[in-house]
Design brief:
two-stranded antiparallel sheet
Length: about 575
């Protein structure tokens, strides 16, 4: 239901073609009223004068992108990775999930601002702000990893329906047709309602967890960091896989484009942050439930310590805990696979539309956006075909894809942080000093984790103590580097705010210089920032001057890219070694 400015409900009658994009927005379908699964909001509605009930209904209308991207995070690869952690290490790796909560929120909150303020997808911003060279690298990574990820989703569908006796030759084509039919309906609201229906099926985690009888003390002990069996390449690969499946690069591209497609503007950023928080709670509950199912449901069996794939977990639970527990796990795997395939596929085709400058919105019908839907169909077809590979290859591919995502995440996060410090794009919505500090810690931590995996793969006899010393030295280098950059960040933010004040007040250059020499109070800066945020939207991208890269930044970017290329090769080597025994 949409609202008039006085709060009275009304029906929207504006067609997509009647609305013309402004500023950086490129697709007319990305401008207009919000039509969510749980309600609608008129394009010009505000929160002013609303009752609590009306505000709550507006929140329900906004909810969607954050919840879907987080639940999509617990996809087939996620279920397999969390089950492997529980089956092989019990609840000892729960702490990794806790550490990833701030990573999830910080990364996804940044794309919330980028999508709402700029009105274009992540791929479009990277191409326009950094050029074709870096854009090709970033989107190329996305296409390769996403295609492999969708293969793992079809693997999950096959394993889940195989548990119920449906052969792969039927289950995979059936899932591909269903996924395309949901997306190709030409209705954003219908698509979102279908995804909400799938998300509601996650309720099976509660009876599943209850029936495996988890020990609260053991779960609680898992929140304390530990390295069962010592740090080695096998454990590090699993930790990197947990990182990669929990905070995957595709999430950045999906949520930003989905926010744009839902027509969420800066006015609703606060509500979208709530949406994100709800999604994080759901994904963490699901991940812990899956670990519990594998750890406690298989306790005392020969399966402990011998993970093969998620389908085998379902069958083992059936044999040890009964058909109901096995069926619940299979349903959870099927649900996760369908949500994941849908979200990852859309992330890819959204980015394809951004790259080619073609229509890419769920508001368009197939005849109105043929490239968008053809790309989605082609991706599903290729992934479905590859998923008919031998079972032992597919099982290892599932973990390998998550590890690849974890290795490539630092590169994706670096681009994200650079965009969120781009004053021309985000204006008053750029990162604060505090946000940059947190983002810097996240990026450096991911790089250190990737370095540890590389070292353990090259030198498999490295001791746990050596790796811990390496982490400590890396942390010290990060602290010293951050401390060196902090004064520059603070000066830049203060000058930007005071120049904004000068522009709003119509001061001449001499007055601006005088103002900068007498800094504003914190309350004055906050008031100016809020006023500026209300009015700012990213201008047309072709009117903006591209940011200049210093020699130091360029060298750092090239070094990071070169190292990540080596790390990707090493992950491939590790997976190949596992396949060949």
């Amino acid at each position: 239901m949409a609202f008039f400015s006085n709060g009275a409900p009304r029906r929207n009658t504006t067609a997509v073609a009647d609305v013309q994009p402004t500023g950086a927005v490129m697709d007319s379908a990305h401008v207009g009223d919000i039509h969510g699964a749980l309600g609608s909001i008129s394009q010009h509605d505000t929160l002013e004068g609303r009752s609590r009930w009306q505000r709550f209904r507006m929140l329900l209308a906004v909810i969607g992108p954050g919840l879907i991207v987080m639940v999509g995070d617990n996809d087939a690869g996620g279920v397999a990775t969390y089950a492997q952690a529980g089956q092989n290490y019990g609840m000892a790796l729960v702490w990794t999930l806790v550490l990833l909560i701030p990573v999830l929120y910080v990364n996804q909150e940044m794309v919330v601002r980028l999508g709402a303020v700029a009105g274009v997808g992540h791929a479009r911003l990277i191409f326009d702000r950094f050029g074709k060279f870096w854009g090709a690298f970033s989107v190329g990574d996305l296409f390769i990893v996403n295609a492999l990820t969708i293969v793992t989703e079809f693997i999950g569908v096959s394993m889940a329906l195989g548990y119920f006796g449906l052969p792969r030759g039927i289950s995979i084509p059936l899932a591909a047709v269903l996924l395309f039919a949901v997306v190709a309906g030409g209705s954003f609201r219908r698509w979102e309602r279908f995804l909400f229906g799938l998300i509601a099926l996650n309720i099976v985690i509660f009876p599943l967890t209850f029936m495996v009888r988890p020990k609260v003390s053991e779960v609680g002990h898992g929140f304390l960091p530990s390295f069962p069996g010592g740090l080695n390449s096998t454990l590090l690969l699993l930790i990197v896989a947990i990182v990669g499946t929990t905070v995957a690069p595709w999430q950045l591209f999906f949520q930003q484009s989905n926010i744009v497609d839902k027509r969420i503007t800066p006015r609703w950023i606060r509500y979208e942050r709530y949406d994100l928080i709800v999604g994080i709670v759901v994904v963490m509950a699901g991940a812990i439930a899956i670990m519990c199912a594998a750890s406690f449901g298989l306790a005392g069996t020969d399966a402990i310590g011998n993970f093969t794939d998620a389908g085998a977990v379902a069958r083992a639970l059936h044999d040890h805990m009964g058909p109901t527990v096995g069926a619940l796990f299979a349903i959870l795997l099927l649900d996760a696979s369908l949500i994941g395939a849908n979200a990852v596929g859309l992330a890819t085709t959204y980015a394809l539309g951004d790259t080619l400058g073609k229509r890419h919105s769920l508001h368009w019908k197939i005849t109105e956006a043929p490239i968008f839907y053809a790309g989605y169909a082609t991706l599903l077809a290729i992934a479905a075909a590859v998923s008919f590979s031998p079972d032992h290859v597919l099982g290892l591919l599932t973990q390998g894809v998550q590890a690849l995502a974890g290795v490539l995440l630092p590169s994706a996060t670096v681009f994200l942080v650079l965009l969120c410090n781009d004053k021309a794009v985000l204006g008053p919505w750029v990162n604060t000093v505090r946000q940059n500090i947190v983002a810097g810690v996240i990026v450096w931590s991911l790089v250190l984790l990737s370095l540890a995996l590389t070292a353990a793969t090259f030198f498999p006899n490295l001791s746990t103590q050596t790796l811990e010393i390496g982490f400590g030295a890396g942390a010290l280098i990060g602290i010293l580097g951050g401390a060196a950059m902090l004064p520059a960040w603070r000066r830049g933010q203060r000058r930007a705010t005071e120049r904004t004040a000068a522009e709003l007040g119509g001061l001449d250059p001499d007055q601006v210089e005088e103002l900068e020499s007498t800094p504003l109070t914190r309350a004055e800066r906050k008031a100016i920032l809020e006023a500026d945020r209300d009015a700012f939207r990213t201008p047309a991208l072709d009117t903006l001057e591209r940011p200049a890269f210093s020699m130091g930044r360029m060298a750092g970017m090239i070094a990071l890219r070169g190292y990540l290329l080596i790390a990707v090769v090493l992950v491939g080597v590790k997976i190949f070694q596992s396949i060949t025994g």
